[in-house]
Design a protein that fits this description.
The complex is a heterotrimer. Chain A has 13 helices and 12 strands. Chain A is of the alpha/beta class. Chain A has one domain: P-loop containing nucleotide triphosphate hydrolases (Rossmann fold, 3-Layer(aba) Sandwich), CATH 3.40.50.300. In chain A, the strands form 2 sheets. An 8-stranded mixed beta sheet of chain A has the order 6-7-8-3-9-10-12-11, sandwiched between helices. A 4-stranded antiparallel beta sheet of chain A has the order 2-1-4-5, with helices on one face. The longest helix of chain A is centred in the middle third of the chain and has 18 residues. Chain B is mainly α. Chain B has 13 helices and 2 strands; from the N terminus they run ααααββααααααααα. Chain B starts with a helix and ends in a 6-residue tail after the last helix. By secondary structure, chain C is mainly α. Chain C has a domain of 202 residues: MetI-like fold (Orthogonal Bundle), CATH 1.10.3720. Chain C is 74% helix and 0% strand. Chain C is built from 12 helices and no strands. Chain C starts with 13 loop residues before the first helix and ends with a helix. Classes of the chains: A alpha/beta, B mainly alpha, C mainly alpha. Chains in contact: A-B, B-C. At the B-C interface, α1, α7, α10, α11 and α12 of B face α5, α9, α11 and α12 of C.
């Protein structure tokens, strides 16, 4: 079966100040139908930009290169009409902050049925019926009343469910979820993730799930892609992400999460500060903060290498894999 | 909602009452007696004096006088014009049509041109935007009376496209005569509203909800109409309302410049003729219009924003 | 940010030069040009008796004359020197808004300080009163006052000062409310400094730049309003020379001699543009700093 989504050497530059600055470097990955890819990274690592570039939703003045192919069609050369068709029916997007992403002026019902009524020429009553049904599915009670309310009358978690419902209504093949739980309370986060995961699975929709939480990523996805400073540094099966990652950055991410099972004197941190994508020099972008760095790392940028089910962008990938990489939890890398 | 409307209406009535007290009471602040203010330097026949006394009850306590004056005014009776020996209401109703036509004409210009240019500026290319912004820079630095002078000089005296003076008669006669005055009256407000519209549109264009609308594949026209313009409308409505309310004072200047016999001109000539009953009447009408338009704007604003509509304003 | 752009001040003491540089940093080169223009106009107004001949001298042999050595901008319909009338006119045209804004600020700032400092019912009462004052258009108030007290600069200025007061007070009050809750004010209060002293020594100086930008912008509006009142025949009376009075001369337009009307128009527009530009720059600078 051919891939649903193929991203090949995608690079994006944004106008910052007077100059175009790169925010994404040569990102490549594929996604099969029904598959879930989690994209993990710190803020500014290019996760959101990757998702937006898939549907060509880039800020004005942005430049991009590389190729995004969705179900056989090249998104980069799509006409306006094709692009709208793609966004309306094939790919749905869930944003980070539902309060900002849902127009505060219109009623929830208008928001949900807008695309169906205006674009698909569905009768209002039918669209309304569907909206009620899908709101019930995402776990909102009394949907009929909710449809008449405005966004400010709903909680953040509720609004994100509305956002998910709006994407489900469009019945797309792919959902792009851009940190859908970051803006929510911890307690509602889990519920929203569960709703999204379950309903997606029922409908066999593929998903790109963006998060900065490696554990959440591993839990929800089939594969995990790790981004750093605009580079995709590692792609690996979800099961492996928490066990034996190969890239030192992934390993460091794993170590810097607080463990719940025992009391720690200090939460380990990755030394140094994250690099902005445009600050990357000729070498490996992670080299300045990497405790495994060798001379070559500063001089030469590693190319992604395939190792079994993985793709890793590290000069020492082979030897680290052979060594089984360092056992996690010992704290040798960081203080 | 009803409670909100009730409160708006109540505060409007309070404002109207207080301004009318100021207008009526001001004649007691003048040097000399109220008598002297009312009669000015006119020599009056005993019969006229009697009529004025009956209107103003000058001997009675202030609030009794005021109340009688106000209730009479509300019934359309503004007393006697000392200068012309005619009822003030007659002078008012003779002057009002010109002013109303002028203000409505200018209001239409303001909303259509101001919002239109602002939207063009926000959505158009860099060159169009630059041109419109340059235009508004000029517009906001030209006072109404200067705009009037320039329009008279260029379009009436040089090009002879429009008459110089007078208000014309009949709808088309008025339209022709009042076009230059309406443009002069609207110019500043158009420029200002254009800027407000542009800024507001641009702010909304950057909004995340617009990205959502685009990500859902909605057509660009729906995105602009329902998610950009509709949201941008809040400040636009407020500002256009304030500008329209401002026209009510601006009309005095334009009527003077173009020699139009409207309410503003009536007010000025009443001042000159020391005809205080007429001054009070015209002031009352103009202030009332100003307060009412402002209240309508407040209500319109509330209707447009669901967040305020549901009483979030109490805070 | 080159200090060379303003070379005429190169000779003044360094303190003042630093002040000029700081102003330059805030309002930009265009703003400095605007300030320089206003300074020239103000200087001309102050020095009018020294540099300009009697603006009311009628040279009846030279009416509506074009520019000449004796009359650099020509003469008006009564043969009066136009340049001289413009220079003398600057005196009343600039003095008026100075009185209006000075009086309005003088009342507005203490009122705002009381409202912002005391808060609660006092604040509410003052805010309501200001709201009420907004409901009365300034021009109309001026006309009412003129109807009672007669025409002239004083009644017009008083009326406009009353109607400008709430604008300045509102801006000052919001600045004081914002500043009031900062720790240094609490620190002063704990030390037992009186409310009056805190207002005068800390609060008002700290919001002075906000007040200045509002005062500058208001000055432009007051200039226009006073000129408009002159134009309506309510403020300065002819033959005293004033820009608004000069504009109120439609006969000159009808007689085909528009320059004597257009020159004062131009000066009003230039002054307002310059003042408003500087005021807006100060305001946006203030906004930027607040963020």
């Amino acid at each position: 079966m051919s891939a649903l989504l193929e991203v090949d050497q995608l690079a994006v530059q944004l106008p910052i100040g007077q100059r175009l600055r790169p925010v994404l470097h040569d990102v490549s990955f594929t996604l099969a139908r029904g598959e879930v890819l989690a994209v993990v990274g710190e803020s500014g690592s290019g996760k959101s930009m990757t998702a937006r570039a898939i549907v060509r939703l880039l800020p004005p003045g942005a430049a991009s290169s590389g190729r995004v192919t969705f179900d056989g069609t090249d998104v980069g050369s799509a006409t306006r009409a094709q692009l709208r068709e793609l966004r309306a029916r094939r790919v749905g997007m869930i944003f980070q902050d539902p309060r900002a992403a849902i127009n505060p002026i219109h009623r929830i019902g208008d928001f949900l049925t807008e695309a169906l009524v205006r674009d698909r020429r569905m009768r209002k009553a039918e669209a309304h019926e569907r909206a009620v049904a899908v709101l019930g599915e995402v776990g909102i009670d009394d949907p009929g009343r909710r449809l008449r309310q405005h966004p400010h009358e709903l909680s953040g978690g509720m609004l994100q469910r509305v956002m998910i419902a709006s994407v489900l209504l469009a019945e797309p093949d792919l959902i792009l979820a851009d940190e859908p739980t970051t803006a929510l309370d911890v307690t509602t986060q889990a519920e929203v993730v569960a709703v999204l995961g379950d309903l997606r699975r029922e409908r066999a929709m593929a998903m790109v799930f963006i998060t900065h939480d490696l554990e959440l990523a591993a839990a929800i996805s089939d594969r995990v892609a790790v981004m750093y400073a605009g580079y995709l540094v590692e792609t690996l099966p979800a099961a492996q992400a928490l066990e034996r990652p190969i890239h030192p950055y992934t390993e460091a991410l794993l170590r810097s999460r607080p463990e719940l099972s025992r009391r720690m004197a200090a939460i380990p941190q990755i030394p140094g500060r994250p690099l902005a994508a445009h600050e990357a020099t000729g070498g490996c972008p992670f080299q300045p903060r990497c405790s495994y760095a060798i001379e070559r790392c500063a001089a030469e940028r590693p190319e992604p290498v395939r190792l079994g089910g993985e793709s890793v962008m590290c000069h020492r990938a082979q030897e680290r894999r052979a060594a089984g990489s360092a056992p996690v939890g010992e704290g040798t890398l960081v203080r | 909602m009803t409670r909100y409307l009730g409160r708006q209406l109540a505060s409007m009535i309070v404002l109207l009452l207080l301004s009318s007290i100021v207008i009526y009471g001001s004649m007691y602040l003048a040097p000399g007696s109220a008598d002297a203010v009312l009669f000015g330097n006119h020599t009056v026949l005993p019969a006229v004096r009697k009529a004025v006394d009956a209107q103003y009850h000058l001997g009675r306590p202030f609030f009794v006088q005021y109340w009688d004056w106000l209730t009479a005014a509300l019934h359309g009776n503004f007393g006697l014009s000392i200068a012309l020996r005619t009822p003030v209401s007659q002078r008012l109703s003779a002057a009002a049509p010109t002013t109303i036509f002028l203000v409505v004409y200018a209001s239409i210009l303001i909303t259509v041109a101001g919002i239109g240019l602002g939207v063009l500026s926000a959505l158009g290319g860099r060159k169009l935007d630059g041109a419109i912004m340059a235009l508004t820079n000029v517009g906001t630095s030209v006072p109404t009376f200067v705009a009037a002078i320039i329009l008279i000089e260029v379009f009436a005296l040089d090009l002879h496209w429009f008459p110089v003076l007078g208000a014309g008669s009949g709808f088309f006669g008025r339209l022709q005569h009042l076009t230059l005055p309406a443009f002069a009256l609207a110019a500043w407000a158009v420029a200002y509203l254009t800027r407000v519209t542009r800024t507001s549109m641009r702010d909304e264009l950057r909004g995340e909800h617009v990205a959502t609308a685009r990500a859902r594949g909605l057509s660009e026209s729906v995105v602009i109409r329902r998610h950009v313009f509709r949201n941008a409308l809040l400040p636009i409505v407020t500002v256009s309302g304030l500008q329209v309310a401002g026209l009510i004072a601006g009309t005095i200047i334009v009527e003077q410049a173009f020699g139009l016999n409207g309410l503003g001109q009536l007010l000025l000539s009443a001042v000159e003729q020391k005809d205080f009953a007429t001054v009070q009447a015209v002031s009352l009408v103009l202030v009332a219009a100003f307060v009412i338009v402002n209240t309508l704007v407040d209500i319109a604003y509330t209707m447009l924003d669901p967040r305020i509509r549901l009483g979030a304003r109490e805070a | 940010m080159s200090a060379t752009a303003i070379s005429p001040v190169a000779a003044v003491p360094t303190v003042r030069r630093r002040r000029v540089a700081r102003l330059h940093a805030r309002i930009g080169t265009a703003g400095m040009v605007a300030v320089a223009f206003l300074a020239v106009v103000a200087l001309a107004a102050i020095l009018a008796p020294l540099i300009a001949p009697n603006p009311n001298a009628e040279d009846l042999l030279n009416i509506t004359a074009g520019p000449s050595l004796g009359h650099p901008l020509g003469t008006d319909e009564l043969g009066r020197n136009l340049l001289s009338r413009l220079i003398w006119g600057a005196r009343t045209s600039l003095l008026g808004p100075l009185i209006v804004i000075g009086a309005a600020t003088g009342v507005a700032v203490p009122v705002a300080a009381v409202a912002g400092w005391r808060g609660g019912a006092v604040d509410l009462a003052i805010s309501r009163l200001l709201d009420l004052m907004f409901a009365f258009p300034g021009l109309l108030l001026a006309i009412l006052v003129v109807a009672l007290y007669g025409t002239g600069l004083v009644p017009c200025s008083i009326a406009l000062a009353i109607s400008y007061m709430p604008w300045i007070a509102r801006v000052a009050r919001s600045g004081i409310v914002r500043e009031r809750h900062k720790p240094y004010i609490a620190a002063a209060e704990v030390q037992g400094v009186s409310g009056f002293a805190i207002c005068v020594r800390h609060l008002i100086p700290n919001i002075s730049s906000i007040i200045w930008s509002q005062v500058t912008i208001s000055f432009g509006y007051a200039l226009v309003d006073l000129a408009a009142l002159s134009f309506l025949g309510l403020n300065i009376q002819p033959p005293t020379s004033d820009w608004g009075v000069m504009v109120n001369n439609e006969n000159a337009l009808l007689d085909g001699h528009p320059v004597e009307v257009l020159y004062p128009c131009l000066l009003i527009v230039l002054c307002v543009t310059a003042v408003t530009y500087v005021g807006n720059r100060l305001a946006s600078e203030e906004e930027r700093r607040a963020r």
